[in-house]
Amino acid sequence: VLKVLSHIDSILRSPRAPPLIYRRSKGPVQNYSKENGQECGFEHLPLTIEMWADQLMALKDLHRSLRKLSLELVPCHTADPQDNRESIRVEDLQFIVDAILEEIENKEKNSQTPSLPTLFAIVSHFQKLFDVNSLNGVYPRMNEVYTKLGEMTNAMRNLHELLELDSSAPPTVVVDTVGKLCAIINENVTEQVEQLLGTQDIHRIMKKLEEHECFFPPFQALIQDLLCLLEISNLDDILPTVRNLK
């Protein structure tokens, strides 16, 4: 018995043993003694063994709890047929924990991929925005929108360069600048026309137009009457026909 207890004591004193398991007794020395006559410190063994037994039982309870959690989080993993074995090792618990952590990491990665309802909502929203009646028309309209967007982007970039605007200027600034430029051009054209014709020339032209409106209708009526009277259809035949009548 002394040999067995000495072996147990050496295990408890081993560096691999948790520091809280072995505690040197502070009470009276027991009757057991080593070969060198020193105390063996076995008086703490019953409490230590009881604690070990409790820890082993708690290890089984922890194993069952982890298995339940694993079945909830990792339903694809079937129960281990050795789950009901008597001896549960820490390696078994670590294996279950690693499997759960791996499943959580995979779910976090897969969560970045949109679900089918999300994709359907995106397609439906695109159809509403760009007036697409069927799914077959989504891709052609996407290509059309992409082409138009490229054309508009190039046009806006060229306008920014021509108008010497910053590339970050919004479209409203571009439109306002073009409007101001057109107004300046129109004002210059009006001024140039007035300088070319002059104020007096404009009034003279207006007077000539008024005289034309007064003269031309009676003259046109006279010519029509002569053509009917002489029974001809060409203006150049009026004078020769009148000479012949003379």
TrEMBL record:
Chief location of this protein? cytoplasm
Annotated compartments = Cytoplasm, Cytoskeleton, Microtubule organizing center, Centrosome
Keyword flag Coiled coil: yes
Record keywords: Coiled coil, Cytoplasm, Cytoskeleton, TPR repeat
A single Gene Ontology CC annotation of this entry is: centrosome
Q: Mention one GO molecular function.
A: gamma-tubulin binding
Check the UniProt entry and state the signal peptide residues, or none: none
| Biological processes per GO annotation | cilium assembly; regulation of microtubule cytoskeleton organization
Q: How does it assemble?
A: Directly interacts with tubulin-gamma; this interaction determines centrosomal localization.
What's this protein's function? Answer: Plays a role in the organization of both preexisting and nascent microtubules in interphase cells. During mitosis, required for the organization and orientation of the mitotic spindle.
Q: What is the designated name of this protein?
A: Centrosomal protein of 70 kDa
UniProt lists the gene as Cep70_0
